[in-house]
Amino acid sequence: MRAAEWGWAWPANRRILYNRASADPQGRLWSQRKRHVWWDEHARRWTGFDDPDFVATMPPDYQPPGDAIAQMALTGTSPFVMQADGKGWLFVPDGLLDGPLPTHYEPHESPLANPLYRQQSNPTRQVFERPGNRSNPSDGQPGGDVFPYVVTTYRLTEHHTAGGMSRGLPYLAELQPEFFCEVSPELVRERGLEQGGWATIVSARTAIEARVLVTPRMPALRLDDRVVHQIGLPYHWGVNGLASGDSANDLFGIVLDANVHIQESKAATCDIRPGRRPRGPALLELVESYRARAGIGTAKPDR
Q1: Residue 226: which of 293, 152, 148, 142 has the closest Cα?
Q2: If you ran DSSP here, which 8-state letter would residue 301 be given?
């Protein structure tokens, strides 16, 4: 096995995608210290410490004939074989809806006004306003103070990729036996939470419950002369498995990035309160009470 010290291999035992870029257009190494693959003129093939991420016998001076297809239609100096032209792109070639350069917008739901621009949130974002996908008001909007805290999700080291691959494995379920929320000592005091106790986290979509983990990893932030508290939620739990629990993703609405359609709403706003969430109709009533206070509407959440 080549490059055995690497912990991950792509198909064909390839450790680094686009490793053709470790050599110059003539196939010579840019750096001996960072060498990966290079052209061996004597053997008439690419060699080195990784499997080439392209045709191993394609010489650096290769020029495709007019009827060539797939990667044989690329030149020998084109390292990005997964692109149609073999070149690296700073921007997409067509269909760019946001950009071309990144800038700062506040999330769709935010406890702060955008400190840099009058435009609060990304104007190209895709928003789906439906009865079960209501949005929390942001800072400066009526009802914005009903959901004063920032909530976000993240992955756990002890879990393999996501919950569906983790909750059914006994060893991983033992390492992470219960859904939890990470909160700061300051937020614990502010909201009357208790280490190891239950907390209910509420958005305009639904309410979920989690065990309280008090940690300095989620410090209170001072932003724009305000203190903003964060709540961290691992997203691995669900109703099935050896270690089941509420799903953090239920809290989030569907708001998508315009270019790649990935949820930008994984940072949102919420409220947190001590105790377990209600069940059945009482859960719907709790969420409806928050919606009414925030002026969101009366349609019932999906859950």
Answers
A1: 148
A2: P
Count of Cβ atoms closer than 10 Å to residue 207 Cβ:
25
**Mode of pairing for the β-strands spanning 180-183 and 207-214:** parallel
What pTM does this model have? 0.76
Distance CA 11, CA 79 (A): 17
Give the C-alpha separation, 290 to 286, whole Å.
Answer: 7
Burial class (CB in 10 A: 0-12, 13-18, 19+), 294: buried
d(CA 278, CA 285): 9
Q: Report the amino acid identity of residue 216.
A: P
Residue type (1 letter), 170: P
Extents of the domains making up the chain: 1-91, 126-294
Q: Give residue for tokens 């390839």.
A: 14
CA dist., res. 303 & res. 281, Å (int): 10
DSSP string over 28-86: -BS-STT--EEEETTTTEEEESS--SS-TT--TT----TT--GGGGS-TT---TTSTTS
Average model confidence (pLDDT) across the chain: 89
Structure confidence by residue, pLDDT tens digits, 246-263: 999 999 999 998 888 888
> What is the spatial distance between Cα 137 and Cα 106, in angstroms, rounded to a whole number?
13
**Percent with pLDDT over 70 in the chain:** 95
**Angle at the Cα of 230 (from 225 to 236), degrees rounded to 5?**
165
Domain 126-294: which CATH number of 3.40.47.10, 3.30.460.80, 2.40.40.20, 3.30.200.20: 2.40.40.20
Determine the Cα–Cα distance for residues 178 and 238; give it in Å rounded to an integer.
10
DSSP 136: -
Q: Distance of alpha carbon 267 from its chain centroid, rounded?
A: 9
What integer pLDDT is reported at residue 2 of this predicted model?
52
232 by DSSP, 3-state: which? strand
Whether residue 156 contacts residue 236, with contact meaning beta carbons closer than 8 Å, is answered with: yes
